[in-house]
Amino acid sequence: MTSASTSWPKLILVALVATITGVAAATVYQSRRGDVERGDRRAPAATTGDVSSEAADGHGHKQWWTCGMHPQVMQDHSGVCPICHMKLVPMRADVAGTSGRVVIDPTVVQNMGVRTAPVTRGALDVTVRAAGILKVPEPGLHEVSLKVGGWIERLYADTDGMYVKKDQPLFELYSPEFQVAAEELMTATRAFKSLDPGAGEAVRKEAAGLVESAKRKLRLWDVAEQDIEATAKADRPPRTVVFRSPVAGHVVEKTIVQGAAVQAGMKLMLIEDHSTLWLDAEVYPQQQGMVSVGQRVEARVESMPDKTFAGAVSFVYPHVDHMARTLTVRTPIDNPDHELRPGMYASVTIVTRPVEGAVLVPREAVIDTGTRQIAFVATANEGSFEPRDVRTGLVGDDDKVQILEGLAPGEIVVNSGQFLMDVESRTIEAIRKLRRSTRADRNLPRTDRE
Fold first, then answer.
1. Taking Cα atoms as reference points, which of 380, 302, 312, 315 lies closest to residue 350?
2. What is the pLDDT of residues 273-304, one digit of tens each?
3. Cα torsion angle, 227, 228, 234, 239, sign
4. Which residues fall within 8 angstroms of residue 189, CB to CB, at 6 or more apart?
5. Please, what sign has the CA dihedral across residues 338, 342, 343, 346?
6. Which residues contact 324 (CB under 8 A, 6 or more apart)?
7. Which residue ranges of the chain lie beneath pLDDT 50?
8. Contact 300, 308 (CB under 8 A)
9. What is the predicted pLDDT for the residue at 368?
10. What global pTM score does this model have?
11. 20 to 30 A from 152, CA-CA: which of 15, 23, 215, 258?
C-alpha cells in the first residue's frame, strides 16, 4: 500500500508535462502555418533567392511583383501569393509604369492578325437612308359639296374607292331652287332670241345680260357648262341637274346614297388624285443637318423591287416628331400609271453633298463604348500601341468615319485586333490605379490606415 500510494503522484506529474509539451508544439505548428498562408511578408527577399524589394529595373523604376494566377495581387516586394501560395513574379516595366500603352511582341502581332490603316484627309460621301411612307398630296384632295339643297335622284359614283375621270357624272340632284334658276335661264334665252332684228343695240345688250346673269347663277352652283347650255336650249326645265367630278381620282369618304336628302354645305364625298404622291421620309437627328431642299431622292417599294422611283426634296418639316425624334422630309413622286398606292412603305435614299476636307479612318478602327470612343495608334516603336480618345462625326458610304478630334492625318491606327489591345490597356490602367492606391495607403499614418 505504501509503494502504490507513492507512485500515483509521479504518474500524474508525467501526464501533466506531456500535455503541456503537446499544446506548445501544436501552437508553434499553427503559427508557422499561418505565416506561410499570409505570404510571410516579414521574411527578407534574400532568403527566397529573389530580387530585393528595393531593386529597380534598368530605367530606375521601382520593381513591383504580382501573381500569375491572381493579377489583382500586387506588392513592392517578393514573396508568395496569399491566395494560392504561388511564388510572386516581377512585373514588366511597361505594365508597372504610368502609361496605358500596350507593348506586344512583333511575332505575336502577326499571329493576332493585327491590321493597320493610315489616317487620311479627303471628301466624305454620305448617303442618308431612311424609311418613308407614301401619302396623298394635299393639293390632290377634292371635296365634293353642294351650294344648294335637294335630293339625290340618281347616284353614279356609288362605290367607295372607285375611279372617276374628270367631268364624269357623280350624281343627279333634284332641287326646287334649281328649277327656278333653270326657268329664269330658259325665259331669258327665249326673250333674247325673240328680239326683233331691228331692235336697238341697247335692247340687245340688256337681253344678253339677262341670259348671262342666269347662266352665272348656275355656274356658282358648280353646274357644268355643258349642262347649262343644254338647259338654256330645253323647252322646259329638266327635273334634275347633273353634278360632275371636278378632277380625275378615286372616290373616298362617300357619305351619300341614292335618294338621300342633302343640304347646302354638306360634304358628300372626297376625291383623291393619285397621279402624284408625297413620299414622307423619317430622318434621324444625326442626319438632319445634311438634308436640304432640292437634293435627289430615290425610293424602292417591296412590291416592285426592280423599279426605282426618283424625285427631289421639296419640303423639310419645321418641327421634329417628339415621340419618334425624327424629322420628316417630303418628296413628290410622279405616279402616272397608278403603280404606287397611298400607305405603301418605301426605302428612301437621299443623295447629299460630300463633306470636303474631312479626317477619315476606317469605321472598325474606332471602339465605341457608349461613353467613350477609342482608337489605338501605332507608335514609332515596333509593337507599341497607345489608346487615344477620339470624337467622331459622320459615317460615310465606304465605311469611313469622320474624326473631329484626337487623330491627325498621317498617323497609323489599328483596325483589326484592337479589342484585345483594349482589354490589355484596361488591365494596365487598373494596375496603375491600384499601385497609386497602395502607395497612398502606405504614406498614411498607421491610425488612418487602421
1. 312
2. 999 999 999 998 888 888 999 999 999 999 99
3. positive
4. 211, 214, 232, 233
5. positive
6. 282
7. 1-6, 8, 11, 13-60, 95-98, 447-450
8. yes
9. 85
10. 0.62
11. 215
